[in-house]
Amino acid sequence: MGTSHNPQDGYRRNPLALTYGSEVVAPEEMVLPSLRVQAYHPEANHQRLLKHLNMVESRREVAMERIMSEKAKVATSYNQKVKLRPLEEGDMVLKRDFQKKDEHGKLVGTWEGPFLIREKTSPNTFHLATMEGIPVSKMWNGMHLRKYHTDVV
After folding, report:
1. Which PANTHER family does the entry mention (predicted)?
2. Where are the beta strands (DSSP E) in the chain?
3. Domain ranges of the chain
4. Is 105 left (phi over 0), alpha (psi -120 to 50) or beta?
5. Structure confidence at residue 51 as a pLDDT band (50, 70, 90)
6. If pLDDT is split at 50, 70 and 90, which confidence band does 3 have?
7. Hey, which of 52, 90, 103, 109 has its CA 20 to 30 A from 70?
């Protein structure tokens, strides 16, 4: 094991250092000794490791905070691209037909309808009915519905 360095140097950000709390000595440094290997004193190194042992948990916490921060940035970026589709009871919608694509290939339209939203059970879950009022058997997630516009230009 190598000597301890200033934690601000950034070398302790690797997984091995977070797990074991010390730096790795590369095999090349053993063949051609570097200053770090030549200046290694086992007793002084042991004392530094004991001193920094309490800091291992805080370094793990810092790493976890960094991971959570990155996840939050990714989520924010993703959520900016999400289109909200405010659908309400009584709206006319098209629903995605998953079987049509499987049966007829990828160039066939995958939307069918229109259907009426019969009931909104949660913010993005809907019960549908045909235009004649016949209920559709399963519930639909809003991401598989598209608002049907009757405006003809």
Report:
1. RIBONUCLEASE H (PTHR48475)
2. 92-96, 111-122, 125-129, 135-141, 145-147
3. 7-81, 92-147
4. left
5. confident
6. very low
7. 52
